[in-house]
Design a protein that fits this description.
The structure is a single chain. By secondary structure, the protein is mainly α. It is 50% helix and 6% strand. A two-stranded antiparallel sheet has the order 1-2. It has a two-stranded antiparallel sheet with strand order 3-4. The chain is rod-shaped, with a radius of gyration of 32 Å. The model has no long low-confidence stretch (mean pLDDT 86).
Length: 131
Amino acid sequence: MDESLIDAEQYPRADIDVYLVRNTRHKVKCLQNDYKDIMKDIEIRLHELHAAERERKAHSDSRNVAEQKPNKSLLPFATIDLVSPESPAKHAGLEVGDKLLEFGSVDSENFRALQDIAAIVQHSVGVSSCC
């Protein structure tokens, strides 16, 4: 595809049909460009498809969670009074004064003592909650 079409004396080569080679090269380049455009379009549509599927799944998951706990009261059971710098709580966006509605499986209906939360934290050491 990149061979020269002229000889050492700068004349068209006599051993090939220069017009046919140039025309064929042009067609190949056009097809390569078309291929790139089609692949870009496929990539965009795949991203859209996967984003829509993630959104649909998140929506159905949130609906399933809501269906599983229809009568759950969202009353706060604890108030944050200290957030250490560079702590997981700080990275999660918790601030002093925030009220806890849920912490893992603990909520206002089954909260008895801080040991309930400590047990959840103990089992979550080393587990990342981030994507």
